[in-house]
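Researcher: Here's my situation. A collaborator sent me these components and asked whether they could plausibly form a single complex. I don't have experimental data yet, so a predicted model of the whole assembly would be a useful starting point for our discussion.
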Amino acid sequence: MLTAGIDMGTQRVKVAILKDNQIISRSQNFCGFEPTKAAEQAFEEAMKSVQLSRDQLQHVTATGAGVNMAPFSDSTISMMGADARAGAYFFPSARTIIDVGAEDARAVSCDENGTMLDFVVNARCAAGAGTFIEAMARALEVELEEMGTLSLKADRASPINASCVIFAESDVVSLIHREEPKPEIARAIFDAMAERVSSMVRRLGVKPDVILVGGVAKDAGFVSSLKRTLGMDILIPEESLFAGAVGAALIAAKRAGKGR
Amino acid sequence: MTLMDKKEGKGEYWRWLEYRSIMPGRDWRNAEVITAGVDVGSVGSKAVIMADGEIYSWSVMRTGSNSSDSAKKALGWAMEGTGLKLNNFNYIVGTGYGRVNVPMANRAITEIACHAKGANYIWGPTVRTVLDVGGQDVKAIRCDERGKVVSFLMNDKCAAGTGRGMEVIADLLQIPIADVGKVSLSVNEEPEPVSSTCVVFAKTEAVGLLRKGWSKDKVLAAYLRAMAIRMSELIEKVGCERDFVITGGQSKNIGIVHRVENILGMKRLPVPSLEETGLDPMAAGAMGAALFAKALHERSMKR
């Protein structure tokens, strides 16, 4: 059976194609000004690399913040539902899935079948999402990709009062003027962000194993801070960025099987 | 009163005017007690010099990256051309976000106490509720007839609804910060507020609205509406009792003032003429600090 999932994120669109529940192709693209067009491109690319056409796919399920702009889809699934399904797919021992994206963060608890039990969401404050790291990388004048490695060089974190992106920007400027080492500032940023995400996850209850997915899961600096603030190990799937798309494709397979 | 000196911004839309003045007809040499209040805020630094509890001179400047330098600069600018030297002061009180870094201060007092005291000085004993909107904080303060704080509430380390947030949006829309209030009131019909309270997300939302074809003034009105709702919620939580006043930098933003008044169904007390009285609600915290300095000096003399 061939199915696909499209995850319309706030920053990127991700596509995964599954054959009998195995990932055979995936692709991503920046949303830019025309998310639907960006999704079409990513979708075509994912199909092209495995020489498939749309009519060979039995079911396509879309998810993500921009789900109503998704092309080609037969059905939709909530972001939380997709996360739960993907978490259990990557690690059957998964009970808590944390998803940190560009503009929101959420945590989902699930059972061994990948059925969602409960969830918490933060979409109201940018300090708990990937945007925070981007803004701080700009303030520090380092590349976004360098932030993680930079922060891992520090043994301590600079004191940062502000837990708001806007205030943290001016805080970082003051710290640079005071000639605080950049690695220590970077670590302070990840610690502040991890603290915010951790307090959200604690509201849900932290049940191991804990899985981290979403674009920010690729950031070694954030992962290290999150492990420290949660006080436990965290599992990260290879395809962390595609968790939502994979989860949606798994749902698609289930729905196709039921003849929907 | 004449504004002796104004420092113009360099075309960056968020930049606001720095200013100072010396009250005409007053001489510190005839005064018994000379005190100062220095309010180092996250965005603005304010210094007020008082001679026998009356305003002698003051300055309002932008805070730099270093709190103690900003404190020195603000007080230095208020002293400029007056012949005053630091050893002429009987007592100096520091307040605001950077109050522990005011090197010349004899003592630090929270800005909440200082704003209530300053509001009492500006508007008199009928003031019961003070909304202070600074660069980094929004505070709703209840006080008694002597300007003593009864209770207060403040926002939780979030730029939504603060002066700093306003600067970010002014820059995004390329509208000078001094004009945002007026421009936001030029819309024919008040739009729905932006949905997000976070400045970062509100920025994204504003860009989306502009792309949809909204005019700049309409987007600005939607943002100010969201700001005003947030402030009003804070005031309603602390309980709004007459008379109601607004202090801090955003007291100059008529777009905010009008909307908060509409939501609360209550007018603020009018701001006294700056030209005639030298009473600037943005410097209310520094005024309160200078008054506390006088009281503290007098108490130390009695001992």
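Model: Some features of this prediction you could bring to your collaborator: The mean pLDDT of chain A is 93. The helical segments of chain A are 35-48, 79-90, 130-140, 146-152, 165-177, 182-204, 220-230, 243-257.
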